[in-house]
Predict the structure.
Amino acid sequence: MNAPFYKFDLFGFDVSLIIAFAIGIGFGFALERGGFGSARILAAQFYFTNMRVLKVMFTAIVTAMIGVFYLSYIGYLDLSLIYISDTYIIPQIVGGLILGVGFIVGGYCPGTSFVAFSTGKKDAIVFILGVTFGIFVFGELFPFIQDFYYSTNMGRVTLPDFFGLSYGMVVFLVVLMALGAFAAAEWGERVMAKKGESK
Amino acid sequence: MTALTHILSKVKLHVSDNEHTHSHVEAKPYSNPYYVGFGLGLVLLAAFVIMGRGLGASGAVSSVVTVGVNAVAPEHAQSNGYFSSYIGDGTVSPLKDWLVFEVLGVIFGGFLSGMLAGRVKGGVEKGPRVKTRTRFIFAFIGGTLMGFGAKLARGCTSGQALTGGALLGLGSWAFMLAVFAGGYAVAYFMRRQWT
């Protein structure tokens, strides 16, 4: 076991902030390359006219998932030292629904809004102000909603735990699902393009 | 006759010249989504291997909000169960935080990519049927919902869907499906803004 490096004290907190900046550059660069600095491209996902969000997201998830699986399988990466947030199933589903509505109304998610801001989009600045306000409201309301916030705690539970399947089997099924989603996305885009022409 | 063709060829030349200068300033098309996804996946994998944690975005805004509230009303912030978790014991600024530095990198990386492709152009992202003012109002409302939802779900598309998705967290996958469900559910009512 050699990784995660930070957990094995290969460097300290201050160095980790430099690494954060470097990793952030890679993250922001990839998001911009993917077209995620454009709210119209992001929103198109929800009208089936451009499925880039799904393609980029699932390719990234599958890539990182296979990497983590392989590196932990060969004993290089200690999976138990990687932070996985605990599951609070109901607040997370409700939060996800609110966030999904916010996505199509506002046009960005927090990460993509920073990229849009960096390329000068004015609506992204307004969106970021909205995110700031939303977090402020959440903080102020926290005393009233904290019972709900901490409800349905299931601990550190993963899909293999939950479905009683092996880690490798779930990885395989997610890859299959992603390939199916890619095929459906390519097909959907062609159908919508034809529909657009006939209009 | 020859004069006419001469003029025509001149016009043609002029048009193609115009096209040439136009395409010179035009932004390059976005990259192949599967290549981008692969690259993004490697960045995420690097974060896991080097740091033992994934990516994020909304957490950085929480740190900024906490600093703001703490500056205006310190007692109020420190007695609040949410803000106090970001303040900690008060010895380290909430801004000296991994996600804050990561987001600064995101802004720099996005700018770098945009510059290289001629896409740093400003403007407002919206469909042709809405006014800029309307777009700004929706951007603010959507952002507010996004901030609130992300805090309730303990992360946004980066921290939960992408990071938790790759680690196969149950809550993250439930969250991801809920995000798509919420978006598709109201997309019809938002079509004027985008199409």
Summary: DSSP finds eight helices and two strands in chain A. Chain A has a mean pLDDT of 94.
